Amino acid sequence: MENVLYDIYLAEAEINSNYSAFYSDSARKQDLLNSVLKKHKITEADLDTSLAWYSGHLDVYLKINDNLSKRFSELSAKLTRKQEATMQAAIALNESAVILPVSEKRFLLTAIDLPQNALPFEADTVFSRYGGFYELQFNASGITSSSAPIVTLCVQCTDTTFVRRDTLSQNGLFSSSIDVLQMKQSRKIYGSFYFPKLNSQTAVFIQDFTLSFSTARHSERSAAK
Fold first, then answer.
1. pTM of the model
2. Chosen CATH of 96-224 out of 3.90.780.10, 2.60.120.200, 3.40.120.10, 1.10.12.10
3. With left for phi above 0 and alpha for psi between -120 and 50, is residue 44 left, alpha or beta?
4. What is the pLDDT of residues 185-200, one digit of tens each?
5. 146: CB partners within 8 A, 6+ apart
């Protein structure tokens, strides 16, 4: 069942990331879901029966969901390592840019993974810099009009906190940033995903998640070169 749900979530993420293409062609959507069923040699009736059984055995379902979250985190980590390798090469050319370490989080966001409709994140480092440009970046899939989270990015300084909030309204690359004044000393970088509305169909996949710091905006660094 874990493998079936894993592939179904991937298929749903693909559908939601190409919403206009799939929902204007219902046959294409059904073909994708049927390919998952065929791969696992089950029917849609088998799947419905299994889901009904797990709804009455939530302890087992929660274990499966934990395993799925770990698998998606591992997948995201692999993609992130590739991205970091590329960015580290760029950093070698420009030492003013720094990727901030972030603890592994659950990157498959479903209703059951979001107590109080929110998931926090935080840079895993003791930070002490004056001024600078802080950026959050990731790729998202599974975003719909009914599951558009509010993404908050915060840079806490010694005497104030800079906050930026954006609504994640579409799939693909997302970037949010904060410019901190040169006289302000940063201490902590953190934020959250908040879903105003959640339902049983909510399944958002976050990958390539990075927090970074640089002494200047990317456009400024490019111009300087």
1. 0.55
2. 2.60.120.200
3. alpha
4. 888 899 999 999 888 7
5. 197, 199
